[in-house]
TrEMBL record:
Keywords: Cell membrane, Membrane, Transmembrane, Transmembrane helix
Species of the source: Microvirga tunisiensis
Ranges where the record places region Disordered: 38-57
InterPro entries linked: T2SS_GspF_dom, T2SS_GspF_sf
Domain (Type II secretion system protein GspF) ranges: 159-281
Record keyword Transmembrane present: yes
PANTHER family: INTEGRAL MEMBRANE PROTEIN-RELATED, PILUS ASSEMBLY PROTEIN
Protein name stated in the entry: Type II secretion system F family protein
Membrane spanning stretches: 6-28, 99-116, 122-140, 258-279, 299-318
Length: 326
């Protein structure tokens, strides 16, 4: 191409682009839309309504932020859980002294079994101390997790009862009493606790926030935030609880799908953790003299402890990789 034609061609293309940008909105009607929007904004009545809507939205967001901030502060205060809190959340009727007694008994019994099997006082003492500290706490945390799962499974039914009761004209406290009669544990006891707290003079928001201390899970936090939001900004409680019930059910379905997808990884971690134990047990049964140095020498015991630690670490990593937060 002749270089003398490049500059005029660029000018023509630029002018055409400018003309297209000016004419195209008129052809598509966008300019009329913009003019109408500007006219509505200049209208005093519309501007006032828009300001009111923005004000209500700002109040709603501020209430949500305050509710989340309060719940976050409560969660941070309860982050380092003591054994009394764990026992309460697990629903176990034990005191701290009973838990310590059970820990001591478990350690002594399992340590005695190891001493009878190995005739090694050091290994028995180490095993007794380790299991006496780990096994009872593991049992409490497992009971706590099962109680949380049962609460999440039954919560949508409780929310449905609350929605129907509010639409029928009942107050929230009356609905909580009905939930306490009609639902299963632990939802029954938790909602009865909310109702009882209100009878003692606690506000609904404070009583529900106590629930998040006993049930530090996302679903309970959602419920508390919804109640706090409704009490501060107003709104239809039935519609809010109806939406929350759908959210909880969808989260439950998502967790079930993730559990199904991660089943292979969890099975692999179980096989990896059990295979060395199975091989060692088979060798102990078929060739005890071959495995004897592992139990009767300090080097063997150190190697055994290291193997247990590394296998446990591998199984722990696989388990963490297969867990998903929703």
């Amino acid at each position: 191409m002749n270089s003398s034609l490049v500059l005029p061609l660029l000018v023509v293309v630029t002018l055409a682009a400018i003309a297209l940008a000016v004419i195209l909105p008129r052809l598509t009607g966008e300019s009329r839309t913009d003019k109408r929007r500007r006219a509505l904004i200049k209208n005093p009545a519309v501007s006032k309504q828009s300001r009111q809507e923005r004000s209500r939205e700002a109040m709603r967001r501020q209430a949500i932020a305050e509710g989340l901030r309060d719940l976050r502060k409560r969660g941070e205060a309860k982050k380092d859980l003591g054994i009394e809190t764990l026992l309460e959340q697990a629903g176990l009727p034990w005191s701290k002294q009973q838990f310590q007694l059970y820990s001591l008994l478990v350690g002594l019994v399992l340590g005695l079994v190891v001493f009878i099997a190995l005739r090694n006082i050091y290994a028995a003492a180490a095993f007794a101390g380790l299991t006496g500290w780990i096994v009872p706490k593991w049992y409490v945390k497992r009971a706590r997790a099962k109680r949380f799962a049962a609460f999440v499974a039954e919560l949508p039914n409780a929310l449905d009862i609350l929605v129907r009761g509010v639409r029928a004209g009942l107050g929230p406290n009356q609905c909580f009493e009905i939930i306490g009669r009609e639902t299963k544990e632990p939802v029954r006891s938790e909602f009865l606790a909310i109702s009882e707290a209100q009878r003692y003079g606690l506000s609904l928001s404070d009583a529900v926030q106590k629930l998040t201390e006993r049930m530090p899970i996302s679903e309970a936090n959602f419920f508390a935030i919804a109640i706090v939001l409704q009490s501060k900004t107003g709104g239809k409680l039935a519609e809010i609880m109806d939406g929350l019930s759908k959210v909880v059910r969808q989260r439950k379905q998502m967790k079930a799908k993730i559990s199904a997808y991660s089943a292979e990884a969890k099975t692999s971690s179980g096989i990896i953790g059990a295979l060395p134990v199975f091989v060692l047990g088979s060798l102990q049964y078929s060739s005890p003299d071959y495995v004897a140095p592992l139990w009767n020498t300090n080097v063997g015991l150190m190697g055994l402890a290291g193997a247990v630690c590394w296998i446990g670490l591998g199984a722990f990593i696989i388990k963490k990789m297969s867990n998903f937060e929703i």
